[in-house]
Amino acid sequence: MAQPPIFSFEGLALQQGGRWLFGGPTPTSGAAPIDLHVLPGDRLALIGRNGAGKTTLLRLITGRIEADRGQRRVKPGTRIVFLEQEPDFSPYATLMDFALGGEDAPAAHEVEAIAGQLGIDMSRPAATASGGERRRAAIARALAQEPDLLLLDEPTNHLDLGAIDWLEDWLSRYRGAFITISHDRTFLTRLTRATLWLDRGTLRRKEVGFGGYEAWEEAVYAEEARAAERLDAKLKIEAHWLERGVTARRKRNQGRLEKLHQMRAVRAAMISGAGTAKLKLASDDDFKSKSVIVAEGISKTYGDRPVIKPFTLRIQNGDRIGIVGANGAGKTTLLKLLTKELEPDTGSVTHARTLSGVMIDQQRKLLEPDATVRQILAEGGDWIDVRGVRKHVMAYLKDFLFDPGLVDTKVGILSGGERSRLLLAREFARTANLLVLDEPTNDLDLETLDLLQEVIADFDGTVLIVSHDRDFLDRTVTVTLGLDGSGKVDIVAGGYADWEAKRRKPAAPAAGGGQAKPAAAPIPPPPPKPAAAPKLSYKDQRDYEILPARIAELEAAIAKGEAILADPELYSKDPQRFAAISKGIETARAEKDAAEERWLMLAEMVEG
């Protein structure tokens, strides 16, 4: 007999910022009200784009905010605990004060037991604790409360690989129910058994873990596209352009994965025997001429502790270098040595004269909350220079999965993930041939991670990435620099899984006795090449190449015209100009619709 739910929300509707985030009072207000039921032992992934309302939904479950409509029911005796993404530590002197503060405080000995397993000193002052220390303290507090329903908002942010492994092990043995928001695909795949998909105000549920989510998502989009096609071809383009773009992006990424494997194979041929930290140079001068960063015998010691033992590395133009290791192992030190922000104790680092870098670090500068998106990207104007190419700000917003209508929205209204995406959009516009990314995946949704992988793969330069996101590294980097905390730097062709396999020994058990788990499976080899797609005619090929630029031009023209029509006095002052601009917008929209439809048809032919 099926067990009754421990939590239910029926007919949920919520208005936020003047719009209905979930549901609405009339059929024209958007999606239908949400129904949510959580059963004992549920292991749910909560998926949705930044700004879809994922964190808001968790807060509604806790009762911290009230819905405009709907009935919230909690089974008597059920303890709901929320691990927030950014809890407030300001009222507390130490991490332990935080853990024992507030309502429903756990027992001190329970907190200390979990903190010991996580390796965190709870007597640390809260004001000076690092992001990783605060995250571990918050985890210790949440788990020590012995929840029946655990709500996790980006639980792996700021955690190193050892702590992520410990948390995965704890959750695998946890008997209660949990709902988790996470961008960590490996974490979600290992732990979840069902998926909640929050999409355009609608909440769908399917009894498959995250491993089956993408196939489900594409099936839903495909059915919607078929339904739209039966109704109206124009509606199909306007309502499903982004969704079709997501599907096309994944198809393109298959080709990129194949290219990544090829690049890794080339780099593997340059690496000497296992366990060494030196790249074998090519016999000719071609490799040297392509080197953009050359580190010769560099090392760094703090006190008596060798953080980086002497090693040599030559980084070529086009390399994607991943740096992994536990917190405190020396990842940031190594990054600073390679970028010449820090001088080595021994050896030298040489940069190519033409090297020009952009760094996006985990301590991202706060964007001014009162500034608008337009001000952040285009200094208040309509145009932005994207790596030397002029582009309309609204068209560029679409490239980063934003609704162009947000162009004059204040930054403070955006979600944390949207602000991170906005910062990435601004930084990727700069002209550079070196990208330095320190924990770039924090706060990003899964579709933005797909986009980030695509941008990195297409970047015509060199990339250095520090990350704890195992799946992201496996899909992105050509070479991994692995630090085990002893000062030794392992150099491995491939991603995180390749580094784990190279070590050839299981990870040491956590201090609390948790069993180590096997390394994440490496990304599979590229699939067999499909039968050749029909060859395009000369005209088709030319249209396929030039239509994206033409679509961008039309979008810019439409946006410019709409901005002029936004003047409430224009019609009364100059009705003829108002009519001419309106007619021009109508013509441009018709041409854009036709261009998008043709490009999609050609893209399907090209991409199989």
Structure, explained:
With 608 residues, this protein is an alpha/beta fold. Among the domains are: 7-212, P-loop containing nucleotide triphosphate hydrolases (Rossmann fold, 3-Layer(aba) Sandwich), CATH 3.40.50; 533-606, Helix Hairpins (Orthogonal Bundle), CATH 1.10.287. It contains 19 helices and 21 strands. It has helices at 54-62, 95-100, 108-118, 131-144, 161-173, 185-191, 213-231, 233-268, 286-290, 331-338, 373-378, 393-399, 416-428, 446-458, 470-474, 496-503, 538-565, 570-573, 575-606; strands spanning 7-16, 19-22, 34-38, 43-47, 69-74, 80-83, 149-153, 177-181, 194-199, 202-206, 291-302, 305-316, 320-325, 346-351, 357-360, 383-386, 389-392, 434-438, 462-466, 479-483, 489-493. Strands 6-7-8-4-9-10 form a 6-stranded mixed β-sheet, sandwiched between helices. Strand 1 (7-16) and strand 2 (19-22) form a beta hairpin. Helix 8 crosses helix 14 (446-458). It is globular. The protein starts with 6 loop residues before the first strand and ends with a helix. The model is unreliable at 233-244, 272-288 and 507-531 (pLDDT under 50).
CATH overall fold name of one domain: Rossmann fold
Shape estimate: globular
Name of the CATH class of one domain: Alpha Beta
Which oligomerization state do the chains in this entry correspond to?
A: single chain
The low-pLDDT segments are 233-244, 272-288, 507-531
Average of pLDDT: 81
Secondary-structure class: alpha/beta
Please tally the helical runs, counting DSSP H or I stretches of 4 or more residues: 19
What share of the residues does DSSP label as strand, in percent? 15-25%
